[in-house]
Amino acid sequence: MKKKATVNNTFVCQVRMQAIRDAMSVLSGKWKFHILGTLIEGDKLGFMDLLREVDGIGTKMLSKELQDLEINHLVSRTVMNTKPITVEYAITEQGKTLSTVIEELANWGIEYRKSILDTK
Amino acid sequence: MKKKATVNNTFVCQVRMQAIRDAMSVLSGKWKFHILGTLIEGDKLGFMDLLREVDGIGTKMLSKELQDLEINHLVSRTVMNTKPITVEYAITEQGKTLSTVIEELANWGIEYRKSILDTK
DNA sequence: GATATCTGTTTCCTTTTGGAAAGTAGTTTC
DNA sequence: GAAACTACTTTCCAAAAGGAAACAGATATC
Asked: Which part of the chain is the HTH hxlR-type domain (chains A, B) (predicted)?
């Protein structure tokens, strides 16, 4: 299975491929876009808030995904010293740069659904 | 684990959630963005062309992903009656509507990589 | 006739992902 | 002091995703 790139083997394409890999490595999975989208809308949400907002997610996945997003500097985590301890999750400046991507993706999804319903 | 949505339980947010689910159901996996991106650049590529262009993919995944994309009307498949049989894969009009999303994602990936290198 | 090319499919396996449920731990209200 | 609330973690398991390699069928070239 030897391979020689022939068509898109330009520098820009290699860079774009790498960029998509980079982006997906940080955004892959079933929940990241939902969590980020929710945090972009209403900033500063507690764990239980997110559990309520992100429809269908469980504690394990929410916890794990939030850790991933925090590691990648897209979400911040702040422990508040309130009566029953609460934690505030918020989108970072870095994370906010994703809002156009998420917006575009959501818009595409809406249009896609429409076009599918038309053809049926 | 009772849940009551309190913050983003508006109609637009429900629609956006659904839109992201729709989009991801069609675009999930390791290779779809790469294949679509490649087909948007150079239209009409053979199976072997794609195998060469999409760095790292194997025959099984390429075959499977192309089938998925064809089912969802994002890619067209045309069998040519050439000497050794060849097949032309191309992006559909429907598929072309993804170009802005892919563009945004790639741009974000590029900027993200830059910012990570800066902070290190 | 052997080898090569094009387009896949099939098999077998490992890794990754995701989910349900129970457990942990601290605080606070009744 | 029992129950409730917040914020998780852990365990155990099932399903999905992904990959390497072999196989297959058709034509065409050496």
From this structure: 13-117
B98, part of any domain: yes
Chain A residues within 8 A of B10 when measuring between CB atoms: none
Residues with CB under 7 A from strand D: A 46-49, 59-60, 63-64, 66-67, 77, 84-87; B 28-31, 56-61, 83-85
Q: Is residue A20 part of a domain?
A: no
For residue A2 the two structure tokens come to 């030897």
CA nearest to B107 within chain A: A19
pLDDT digits (tens, 9 = 90+) for B39-83: 999 879 999 999 999 999 999 999 999 999 999 999 999 999 887
Six-digit token string for B28: 């999930």
Range of the domain at B55: 30-119
Compute the mean pLDDT over every residue in chain B, rounded to the nearest whole number.
89
Between A40 and B6, name the one with better pLDDT. A40
Strand boundaries in chain B, DSSP class E: 75-80, 86-91
- Whichever domain contains B60, its CATH number is 1.10.10.10
